[in-house]
Amino acid sequence: MHIHILGICGTFMGSLALLARELGYKVTGSDANVYPPMSTQLEAQGIELMEGYQAEHLQPAPDLVVVGNAMSRGNPAVEYVLDQGLHYVSGPQWLCEHVLQDKWVLAIAGTHGKTTTTSMLTWILEYAGMEPGYLIGGVPKNFEVSARLGGSPFFVIEADEYDTAFFDKRSKFVHYRPRTVVLNNLEYDHADIFPDLAAIQRQFHHLIRTIPANGQIILSDAEPALDDVLSMGCWSPVVKASLEPSSKQTDTPWHVELVAEDGSAFNIYLEGELQGCVRWGQTGQHSVSNGLMAIIAARHVGVLPKHAIDALCQFGGVKRRMEKIGEVAGVTVYDDFAHHPTAIETTLAGLRASVGKQPIVAVIEPRSNTMRLGAHRALLAESAAIADQVIWYQPAGMGWSLDDVIEGHPHQQVCESIDSIVQQCTGLPSGTQVVVMSNGGFAGIHQKILNALAN
């Protein structure tokens, strides 16, 4: 059977392609933007990638076209599929019908931390010998690929609230029918499809409706937006956790205690009893929260906290999540996926706690649909204020000016040229930490900065 995937280099669709290939299907795909790490791992699995959305990519006709949610009416490939009457389906629906049936699905949802928490949970189950299947919207360093079928009933999935397809406006996660659900957090995002936070909460409520009574919902005790979701109706047990050193609430059995201020070491407590200490290479309060959620979810399928803690001590991280790209002349360059003010702030705070007074330079591309629409522009300058220098990239055609956003922040500037940003980074002193933040390829700026430093 031949499956052709439209939007194959997206983090979700690329992982889906790997599952289809593992099932034995011939898999090809088209995308407007083909760049690593997704393109690299797809090509390594023998999946043919085609640049653009020409009708010729669908000739001869595949048996099935899987349509990514970035596709819309007017796209040449979409119009050809409809005109020719080709068999098509959304990615989440295909996944539900061909992979998730009869699986114990563990889903990780929320505005931030989905990819990292999914990677952590998958690694914990793998470390415990459970051979989970998984689909991760990124490339975890503890595994060779971002998705696999696995060898057990357990399947871990990153559960995104973005809409399913141009013909199915439900959130993707309502297709997954999970038994274990982590709700990391909830803020306003995806301004291109959701008018306000209430609209996103309604979709999370729809997810809650699909969880069985013998399932489990895991969340923090400090997320009022998620409490509002549960108040709409909840039919499954809820387990809450706290990032405070101790919790006085009787309904919050899990909590953490920082051993290192930067989050690189922390104790885990259950019902007031110490379970062990996580010592790892991750930093930041957000990483601690992600780790705690993964430990709790793993316990729901039988992994003891001690074993989960041991696993996290060997967690290697995820590509493009504070991934160290290189170091030249004492200047370290990181690649990070942050594309929301909260993610920018927490990532930089984690780095600051780790490196102390060493200079931090943040290079940020506001690339996501929400960023480009300006939904969070009033929060942007403050979100990066902890950095010593911030360089914002003003992409063409954004429709609003970053110059207005950074007014009153003398350590922040706007550049309209990639080359100009690279030039700004060439004279940095030894010890400087450069964090490049974008949810896209950013024209390969990371390596350009390293090359310029070397020269």
What does this structure look like?
With 455 residues, this protein is an alpha/beta fold. It folds into 3 domains: 2-93, Rossmann fold, CATH 3.40.50.720; 102-312, 3-Layer(aba) Sandwich (UDP-N-acetylmuramoyl-L-alanine:D-glutamate ligase); 323-454, Alpha-Beta Complex (Protein-Tyrosine Phosphatase, Chain A). It has 15 helices and 23 strands. It has helices spanning 11-22, 38-44, 76-84, 91-100, 114-127, 197-209, 224-231, 285-300, 305-312, 341-355, 369-373, 377-383, 402-405, 418-424, 445-454, and strands at 2-6, 26-31, 48-51, 64-67, 88-90, 104-109, 133-135, 147-148, 154-158, 163-165, 168-171, 180-183, 216-220, 238-242, 254-258, 265-270, 273-279, 323-328, 331-336, 360-364, 389-393, 412-415, 433-437. The strands form 4 sheets. It has a 10-stranded mixed sheet. A 6-stranded mixed sheet has the order 18-19-23-20-21-22, with helices on both faces. Strand 2, helix 2 (38-44) and strand 3 (48-51) form a beta-alpha-beta unit. Helix 5 packs across helix 8, helix 6 crosses helix 7 (224-231) and helix 8 (285-300) crosses helix 9. The N and C termini lie far apart (51 Å). 49% of the residues are buried. The model has no long low-confidence stretch (mean pLDDT 92).
